[in-house]
Amino acid sequence: MPGYLTKQEDIAIAGVADLIIRSLLDKQQFSDPDGAAEALGISSAAWPLFGLLWPSGAQLAQRMASRPLQTGERVLEIGCGLGLASLVCHRRGVDVTASDCHPMAQQFLQENTRLNGLSPLRYRTGHWGADHHKHNHGHAQAGAVQGHFDLIMGSDVLYERDARASLAAFLDRHAGSGAQIWIVDPNRGNRSTFHKQMAVHRFEVVEERLDHPALDTAPAYKGRLLMYQRPVVD
Q1: Using an 8 Å Cβ cutoff, are 145 and 120 in contact?
Q2: pLDDT below 70 — which residues of the chain?
Q3: Using CB atoms within 10 A of its CB, is residue 23 exposed (0-12), middle (13-18) or buried (19+)?
């Protein structure tokens, strides 16, 4: 992988076999020779963020390792980055699609799938800001997320103020009947606004605190699992 340095680690997720994950060496890595990321509005400072393992991603992966399997369920991960939660699902036999807007996310996901001896994992481009614009103008992005899902999951995706409520609209479009949406949020300041944006689409939320002190196997964490679902209409 030219243009940047990587590292490889064994990541322990309770309930499933360890995963081998190749990630960027640190936050200083950057390679956008063709300007693909810049064209998507991804700055050089933000470029490496997709390729790092984040605490909230580990929390989501842990939750997906213990979640009961549902026959025929379709799962989508948004803002997947390295796709740790998607890899956990894939290893468990779940019908999962990983998605991200970063032009390098698919390459890293394919490499990590190969490193773990898994069959190819489905990947689609999921850029809700661009998706919002193109949806309203009638143009579908090639390779973009399509269809409906029974569970849509993501971690640390509320890091920006989303004035146009693009993420809520994206989730509304891709949530199937009775779908759940799980977002692991490390207590970002945009949570309450996002609740209101989701309520416009009739999603109700239940919050579960995920706080825990430092453990032998994991660092301390503060955050919440936000679980959205529309009320069942008789």
Answers
A1: no
A2: 1-2, 130-142, 234
A3: buried
CB-CB contact of 96 with 89 (8 Å): yes
Distance CA 148, CA 150 (A): 7
Residue type, 41: G
Strand-strand pairing, 149-155 and 175-185: parallel
From 229, 179, 231, select the one nearest 207 (Cα to Cα).
Answer: 229
pLDDT in tens, 38-65: 999 999 999 999 999 999 999 999 999 9
pTM of the predicted model as reported, rounded to 2 decimal places: 0.93
> Per residue in 196-225, is it b (16+ CB within 10 Å) or e — as a string?
ebbeeeebebeeeebeeeeeeeeeebebbb
Q: What's the pLDDT score for residue 132?
A: 43
Enter the tokens of residue 207. Answer: 């919050």
